[in-house]
């Protein structure tokens, strides 16, 4: 038995030695092989220069001036619901990469008591409807910002923060004001600023200038300068002009030219409560900038057809990077879609495309559309006035 074990062990060792020798010999041969055709890289992807271009659509709407007739119409057994008012128009608001609105009346909510003209306070539920309609950012800088005091501003900004809607032009504190309002879509960063001519004689509390941005040329130019390095485009909302006047005043024109020559790419005007013309401004650097002097009322309880016609503004913002790493920025393809703020006996409020307003008791809606088109194009034909935004 012992002899068999010894023999088997010897045989195993001999077999193991032979296998090791063969394996070592194969590896040596493999190591000595040389390739006659070395693989080559036909294209250096790291150094190959590419052309980049991206475009986004920016939509904007005018004054959300919520009179008591509007919020009474939105009243439900559980609170307030503004969704039915926006049902026929929200598709066109959402059909953009960024949508901006002028929240003229403060969203202070029922906690401090609702109110109407001359010192407004609006149900916060309107904010939820704006969010569901595609609104990304609202201006709060207007002559009604201080209507219900600091608490209303705090209520409104807290609520908007909870909704995820950005606000600009009124702030909770200095740190909040110093936080840049920037929205980035498709690789394009857009910065927003907002200012108002005044607050209806209500004084800004001492030491709390952050509660509302007032129009101050030096401050605006400084704010624009601070945004330049952080953004590709700058949009400035200006609450200015004369109420109910179809043409901008000299101050509006001068300010629009000043801001566009110092870095603003788009000016969105509010306050007149009626539509005013749009225009292109050639800045000193040769770029074309766009200004809508007033987008009119989008939703209100005011009386008079001109005050019930507003518009959705749409502009295209394009960023390009050439193969030699040169950046270029273009504002183009301006469109305006007129809207109509319908109601009957201050009930059943609804915002609809102006071309459909005949169904909502507006006689000669097609003529109103044509008249509105001519007004919008007073200064330039290089804006398309459309019945519907695609």
TrEMBL record:
<dbReference type="InterPro" id="IPR052169">
    <property type="entry name" value="CW_Biosynth-Accessory"/>
</dbReference>
<protein>
    <submittedName>
        <fullName>CapA family protein</fullName>
    </submittedName>
</protein>
<dbReference type="InterPro" id="IPR019079">
    <property type="entry name" value="Capsule_synth_CapA"/>
</dbReference>
<dbReference type="Pfam" id="PF09587">
    <property type="entry name" value="PGA_cap"/>
</dbReference>
<comment type="similarity">
    <text>Belongs to the CapA family.</text>
</comment>
<dbReference type="InterPro" id="IPR029052">
    <property type="entry name" value="Metallo-depent_PP-like"/>
</dbReference>
<feature type="domain" description="Capsule synthesis protein CapA">
    <location>
        <begin position="57"/>
        <end position="302"/>
    </location>
</feature>
